[in-house]
């Protein structure tokens, strides 16, 4: 049983590390604020969730596992809000590369 | 007191977080958490949340399942974009006209879009309930924009089925019925 858990944990941890690596690579390689926001927030959230789940499975004390899951829950609640605020600020201030947009249906309204 | 009655789930959630942080379910922890939650909810100004929505467990499960699948699919897509040799991203901002019958529904939808890799809610027009969504890459396909819009509307329909009001759900059912009766 514990061997099975170990394998699941290992897979989750490796997945999480992979997503974190992708987030970092994306941050370096993507050209402007918007695309970097995509790279920095979303894969990082998923990566954190994988790591937290993988670690929670290894906790012998159930209460530690619950705390880890709370970390994941709060990440899910706060990450989209942060991404939304930064993205909106970048659009409004014109910091994002608006010329790179192939379609901009917000331009006519704002 | 009115505030407490308006936010029963918030009190439950805060109590659960409190107990979770202490780590063990003991009477003292539950009562302590409940006390803190009641004081917080009772003393802080909170926005009114309309209560017309109904939470349907089966609908919520379907929404969560679809969202989880979407999360993995979109993550892989973005992963490909990151690793692929440099290529110009075809970014876009598209307007999606959604059923914005409640703040709760709109928030759920905006957050689901923002959490899905490749899409990000940039701006929300609450009065007209239009979400402006930034897409990382709509692809070379000229239908990319429309396909993305359809994807988002699909999430919206699932959200309505999960937590929308009875009226919104009936409207949705009628619409779907019409679409199947009149073949394109």
Number of helical elements of chain A: 3
Number of helices of chain B: 7
H-E order of chain A = HHHE
Strand content of chain A: under 5%
Strand order of the largest sheet of chain B: 1-3-2
- Label the overall shape of chain B: globular
Q: What do you see in this structure?
A:
The complex is a heterodimer of chains A (110) and B (184). Chain A is mainly alpha-helical and 110 residues long. Chain A has one domain. Chain A contains 3 helices and 1 strand; from the N terminus they run H-H-H-E. Chain A has helices at residues 2-29, 33-58, 62-93, and one strand spanning 101-104. In chain A, helix 1 (2-29) runs antiparallel to helix 2 (33-58) and helix 2 (33-58) runs antiparallel to helix 3 (62-93). Chain A starts with a helix and ends in a 6-residue tail after the last strand. Chain B is mostly helical and 184 residues long. Chain B has 2 domains: 2-43; 57-181, no CATH class. Chain B has helices at 2-6, 8-22, 27-43, 57-83, 103-115, 144-163, 166-181, and strands at residues 91-97, 119-125, 130-135. Chain B has a 3-stranded antiparallel beta sheet with strand order 1-3-2. The radius of gyration of chain B is 20 Å and the shape is globular. Chain B starts with a helix and ends with a helix. Classes of the chains: A mainly alpha (110), B mainly alpha (184). The A-B interface holds A 19, 22, 25-26, 29-31, 34-35, 37-39, 41-43, 45-46, 61, 63-64, 66-67, 69-70, 76, 79-81, 83-84, 87-88, 91, 97, 100-107, 109-110 and B 17, 20-24, 71, 74-75, 78-79, 81-83, 86, 88-95, 110-111, 114-118, 120-123, 125, 132, 134, 136, 138, 145.
Features:
heterodimer; A: 110 residues; mainly alpha; 4% strand; elongated; B: 184 residues; 2 domains; three-stranded antiparallel beta sheet; 7 helices; 61% helix; 11% strand
């Amino acid at each position: 049983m514990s061997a099975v858990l170990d394998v699941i944990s290992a897979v989750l941890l490796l997945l999480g590390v992979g997503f974190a690596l992708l987030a970092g690579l994306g941050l370096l390689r993507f050209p402007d604020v918007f695309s970097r926001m995509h790279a920095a927030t979303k894969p990082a959230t998923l990566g954190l969730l994988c790591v937290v789940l993988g670690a929670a499975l290894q906790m012998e004390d159930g209460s530690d596992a619950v705390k880890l899951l709370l970390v994941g829950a709060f990440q899910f609640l706060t990450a989209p809000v942060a991404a939304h605020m930064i993205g909106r600020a970048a659009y409004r201030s014109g910091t994002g590369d608006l010329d790179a947009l192939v379609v901009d249906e917000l331009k006519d309204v704002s | 007191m009115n505030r407490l009655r308006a936010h029963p789930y918030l009190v439950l959630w805060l109590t659960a977080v409190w107990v979770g942080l202490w780590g063990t379910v003991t009477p003292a922890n539950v009562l302590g958490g409940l006390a803190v939650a009641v004081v917080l909810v009772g003393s802080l100004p909170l926005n009114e949340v309309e209560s017309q929505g109904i939470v349907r467990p089966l609908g919520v499960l379907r929404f969560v399942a679809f969202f989880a699948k979407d999360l993995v699919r979109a993550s892989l897509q973005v992963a490909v974009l990151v690793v692929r040799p440099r290529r110009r991203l075809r970014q876009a901002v598209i307007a999606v006209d959604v059923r914005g019958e409640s703040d709760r529904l709109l928030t759920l939808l905006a957050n689901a879009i923002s959490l899905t890799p490749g899409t990000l809610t940039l701006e929300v027009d609450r009065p007209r309930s239009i979400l402006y969504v930034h897409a990382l890459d709509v692809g070379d396909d000229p239908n990319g924009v429309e396909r993305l819009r359809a994807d988002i509307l699909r999430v919206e329909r699932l959200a309505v089925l999960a937590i929308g009001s009875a009226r919104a759900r009936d409207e949705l059912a009628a619409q779907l019925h019409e679409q199947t009766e009149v073949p394109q």
